[in-house]
Design goal:
By secondary structure, the protein is an alpha/beta fold. The protein has 6 helices and 27 strands. The longest helix has 19 residues. The C terminus is likely disordered.
């Protein structure tokens, strides 16, 4: 039996940052993740994708963000159960929880924090007749290493942030980039939409809207796609490509978490955002993309905020009679469980009692 103070389900950015905030409170954490390495989608799906909304980083690759978070939590020595899925939860008479994985590994903790991101997921695929024929032969649903597309002719389909961000990034990598979207309006960030339009005006990318890919052609590998413009079959355009990347998002599934007795709304876990992001089960929290509440934004930085408040509440649940004093980390640095300490610049000492 693995015991800890806070058991975190999910080792993505939000789960990793929760380790840091818990460590400041001298709370030990253990993380469970079905993936073989920490980092969640940032490590598994798009480690080379640039992220633009992390405070202090005008731009950072998803994989680099994970590396930085791992370095940040190193002093607090978290435990990891990787390559295993959290399957069942049981509440014991003493109020603690036992979570068992699909491989039978048992974990016990007074606090469970679900930071499972979108849960288990698979890419949404377009309904094209011979799509599977070209998978790994020109068709890709996830960009793990953009260098694969260097000097290639790439066509991206989609209208969200991923489609826009990768169009912008690959404009400096691929020989030719074409973005196809079925509407003239995009769902992504306005700044990204403006950048794509600028690249089109500069002749660095091709932008075709409203349009959609209707068929793929090629003998052994993908050689061309046919794009239908304005929903008019008489205007199908043949575009020679090396790669077709449909980026229509992911189909999330909560998996076994859906059977834990949690209140679910639209495939997400409802939480109380007025205080601490606790679920309908006292002692079980949900932070990051896996939760929902009025005004919810699925952003990494929002997950960081939720993790911080969750840890404060967890401390009070674990030590209800203990007086807690919070200090800024700038007061004296960060002290790890092994006694190591990273000194920080001296600052005005402020404490909230």
């Amino acid at each position: 039996m693995i015991t800890t103070d806070i058991l975190i389900i999910g080792a993505g950015p939000t789960g990793l940052f929760a380790v840091f905030e818990a460590g400041l409170l001298k709370l030990k954490c253990h993380l469970i993740d079905a993936l073989p390495q920490p980092g969640g989608q940032c490590a598994e799906i798009y480690p080379k994708k640039p992220i633009y909304d992390i405070p202090g980083f005008p731009e950072i690759l998803a994989g680099e963000l994970v590396d930085n978070l791992m370095e940040q939590i190193k002093p607090f020595q978290p435990g990891f159960t990787l390559g295993e899925r959290a399957d069942t939860i049981e509440k014991l008479e003493d109020g603690t929880f036992v979570v068992t994985t699909n491989k039978g590994t048992k974990h016990q903790a007074p606090i469970v924090a679900i930071a499972g991101g979108l849960g288990s997921f698979e890419p949404r695929k377009p309904l094209l007749k011979n799509l599977e024929k070209y998978e790994d032969k020109g068709v890709a649903y996830i960009i793990r290493d953009p260098e694969v597309f260097r000097g290639k002719r790439v066509l991206i389909a989609g209208g969200g942030d991923s489609a826009l961000d990768w169009t912008i990034f690959l404009a400096d990598v691929a020989e030719e980039v074409t973005l196809v979207h079925r509407r003239n309006e995009f769902r992504g960030a306005l700044d990204s939409v403006e950048k794509v339009q600028e690249l089109k005006d500069q002749g660095k990318i091709n932008l075709i809207t409203p349009a959609e890919v209707v068929s793929l052609k090629g003998e052994e590998v993908l050689e061309a796609v046919f794009v239908r413009i304005n929903n008019n079959p008489n205007e199908d355009m043949r575009i020679a490509v090396d790669n077709f990347i449909p980026l229509f998002g992911l189909s999330p599934k909560l998996g076994p978490l859906a059977d834990w007795g949690l209140e679910i709304e639209k495939n997400a876990i409802k939480v109380d955002n007025t205080l601490d992001y606790q679920t309908n089960i006292p002692g079980v929290y949900a932070i990051g993309d896996v939760n929902t509440y009025p005004g919810k934004l699925k952003l990494i930085l929002c997950g960081f905020h939720e993790a911080t408040l969750m840890c404060q509440s967890a401390y009070q649940r674990i030590f209800p009679d203990k007086k807690y004093v919070m200090k800024y980390t700038t007061v004296g640095g960060v002290e790890g469980f092994d006694g190591s300490k990273k000194e920080a610049p001296k600052a005005v000492v402020k404490a909230i009692k």
